[in-house]
Amino acid sequence: MRERSSVVERDGSYTWFERAKSVIAGGVNSPARSFRAVGGDPPVVMDRGEGAWLIDVDGNRYIDYLAAFGPLILGHSHPQVVEAVRQAMAEGPLLGTPHPSEIRLAEELVRAVQGLEQVRLTTTGTEAVMSAVRLARAFTGRTKVIKFEGAYHGHSDAMLVKAGSGASTIGTADSLGVPQGVTQDVVSLPYNDIERLEEVLSRIGDQVACVLTEPIVGNMGIVNPAPGYLQKMADLTHKAGALLIFDEVITAFRFHYGSAGALLGVIPDLYAMGKIIGGGLPAGAYGGRRDIMDYVAPLGGMFQAGTLAGNPLSSVAGLATLQVLREENPYPRMDRLANDLATALLHLAARHGLVASVNRAGSGFTLFFGTETVQNYTQAQQADAGQFAAFHRLMLNEGVYLAPSRYEAWFVSAQHGPDEIERTVQAADRAMAHIMQG
């Protein structure tokens, strides 16, 4: 494989981003797409995706480990997904009525996800989490929510709470414009610290509506639960009379055909899902026990609605994606490739004298520079932001696209193969060598 030039022409990206800044706040429609965390350069503007690759507006090709932050488990433009959406578009992209595809998708989710007795489709993962929390409050008659440091649950007001250095922080918002009255009922605790959770629930458990967690954390890097942690969390939550909610927006159908909760042997009272279940189109869902879901309007008094919820395009894209995953079972292959790549990156880091660690779950993993252990958000924050930023820029010039944040995951898709993995390893070898030389 020839070495790429250290200077990659991206004049088209610069031109498009200048246009974007004049009409889009910050030039991006989600701050996660900006490059500020990796040096502030204008982000690369992509023209299209093909399988495991992205192609920018200048024609440069990149092996894609972003996977659109997780949804594209089948890679870009899978033919079965494309054909399903084409047919749905011809029949009407939005009807405003019940239709068969949304019912089929709901049936498939209920079949595949253990403990999901009924479901309600939404348009985004943010809506799914927001609705699940509202439902937990309606069902329990309580107000307080316990979440965990470094876990992102969408951008609804109540979820934009960060934790300080104490046992918990109440009422500290991560965003301007969030009223204190919204955040004062949100308690944020360290992940993987069962003693902290037990202590807080012993004090305020009778006020807690729900404990909300990702069963495998995906937004402070991939962080797995310590052995027994989730089961103890479930036991303590139920002892307090609260509901356990698993945010599986990232994890549902990522590691096997179903929920991460089932894979780990713990079934929550409610789920929130998104990303993969929409097959690359906007989609979310929440659901769980039937007696809890009976509180959702029109059966009960907990209101949630959406004009685009369960729309035909998202429903058929999700169904097509799930069908491929169920019938072809790419999980063992993706797991093996991700393991090969993660192992190679660790070996390269050691050979080049870099301190690094990898957290992996199935086909998703995170490479942390400058730290040997990451089990919670405090440890994730200790990862070397400067080294990651340098690595990100170098890998980009090598034709490898990573999420522009040290807290995000690398995702191997069903379209990655040994050639893409080998190209990535060679690129990382050169990038790490350059870091040590610089």
UniProtKB/TrEMBL annotation:
One of its GO terms (molecular function) is pyridoxal phosphate binding. GO terms for biological process: protoporphyrinogen IX biosynthetic process. Pfam families: Aminotran_3. Its EC number is 5.4.3.8. Homodimer. Belongs to the class-III pyridoxal-phosphate-dependent aminotransferase family. HemL subfamily. This is Glutamate-1-semialdehyde 2,1-aminomutase.
